[in-house]
Amino acid sequence: MTDTPLFAAREPVFPRKVQGTFRRLKWIVMILTLGIYYLTPWIRWDRGPNLPDQAVLVDLAGRRFYFFWIEIWPHEFYFVAGLLIMAGLGLFLFTSALGRVWCGYTCPQTVWTDLFIATERWIEGDRNARVRLWKAKWDARKIRLRLTKYLVWALIGMATGGAWVFYFADAPALARDLVAGQAQPVAYITIAVLTFTTVLMGGIAREQVCIYMCPWPRIQGAMMDEGTLTVGYRDWRGEPRGKKHENAEGDCIDCMACVNVCPMGIDIREGQQLACITCALCIDACDDVMDKIGKPRGLIDYLALSDAPPADDTTQRAAVVPLGVTNKADSVSVPVGGAPAPAPNAGPAPIITTAARDWQPQPVWKHILRPRTIVYTVLWGAIGLALLFALFIRPEIDMTVAAVRNPQFVTLSDGSIRNAYDIRLRNKHGEARDFHVSLTSDATLRIGLEGRDDLTVPVPPDSTLLQRVYVTARPDDAAATEERTDLRFWVEDLISGERTYGDSQFFGKEPE
Ligand code: SF4
Ligand code: SF4
């Protein structure tokens, strides 16, 4: 049994501003992802008359999903299922190659938290100023700064909720209605709920969501292995840590820059932690420090467990190459076989061994191109190709048949046996089409349409139509006394000549 509590009260985190390669990459990803999210509903796409001109639209009333030139009907939900499977496999692929790269760069929680921290820094100042403000007594300045911050956060949250509702209706028309106060109540309620939850999750709860609410960190642990690249600290190079005057031998000068920039408030030098979202900001912070003290970059870096220097029977010193960086390293300390890092300033200077000095980490491509990642890529590509193939061969007309089995058949006054069927006809064209309905069977059967003199059904553009169909066997036809007779309904578009079919069965009256 351990006395470790399951929940610790939140210690506020005040991440310091940092600059560098990964910070720039995160800005680019943030602009791209938020830009796509906020702007997509405003893109127009001409589908012709009678159809919405919004490029991406979830039309709940029309039971349709529009994505540029693709139109998904409810019975084609397998496309959405396929895309979800591809998204899952994509996550497996990226996680096995690059660890929690989704969490660090593209997860909405990370992106919005990053945005909220940036606006907080803009309004309240960098880390030290924010710490001072947090400790300060409430006065006019503190109230003004806090109110300004929450107002800006609320506007961001409102834009987030607003963008969401625009995916479900014509965006310009809905925007006008929202401003005029004439939109549906559900639109206002959705925006209010999303404004509140965005501010709560991204602005206030922040890292608590990742640590306590999100199941993904636990799942990802199972997808990573010793070959996975993730953000880590080269303890064999950094330890024993300490300031120069403390006679430390490792490259880490214990400046805490990596801890101060961490949005999760953790110390990566303590090893891999569930809270680490691998945002890589600590890499930028430490690289900056290494530049200033004239040491090679990469003390904190993307690295894999399998990249530990060779085990030896003594503590060693080795030349370590940061992944993808030219080796300019001085000698550094290496704990044996991945053993815990020595305590800061512990022990005498370690010994250099030839094996450790010659040791080089695997190149990055070897971590990415592994049997496991290749299998994921092949599966991902195969599903993608299958979906594309299904998309291009799907017909513009479609039908489903449902036999009416209550009752199974009726006996007409002349002794004929009649079965009824409901046929749902789908016209995916932008104009009305006449569909001709017929049937084929080994037995002799007659077909008729309820409410129509002939076998032609006009179906309006881009819609479905339910048609009751009757099939009859005369008393002397074999099907009248057969328990079941197979039959196939055909539907033909009289303009394009496209055909499709659906199978069913005819139930006869067994002889007594
Ligand atoms: S930023 Fe680098 S040098 Fe500074 S404490 Fe972190 S690991 Fe050590
Ligand atoms: S330890 Fe580094 S990579 Fe992990 S969350 Fe903190 S700053 Fe990001």
Automatic annotation (TrEMBL):
Any one GO CC term of the record: plasma membrane
GO molecular function, one term: metal ion binding
InterPro entries: 4Fe4S_Fe-S-bd, 4Fe4S_Fe_S_CS, Cyt_c_oxidase_cbb3_FixG, Electron_Trans/Redox, FixG_C, Ig-like_fold
Classification via PROSITE patterns: 4FE4S_FER_1, 4FE4S_FER_2
Highest taxon of the lineage: Bacteria
Stretches assigned to the 4Fe-4S ferredoxin-type domain: 242-271
Entry keywords, A to Z: 4Fe-4S, Electron transport, Iron, Iron-sulfur, Membrane, Metal-binding, Transmembrane, Transmembrane helix, Transport
Transmembrane segments: 25-43, 77-94, 150-167, 187-205, 374-393
Pfam families per record: Fer4_18, Fer4_5, FixG_C
NCBIfam families assigned to the protein according to its UniProt record, in alphabetical order: ccoG_rdxA_fixG
UniProt-recorded name of the protein: Cytochrome c oxidase accessory protein FixG
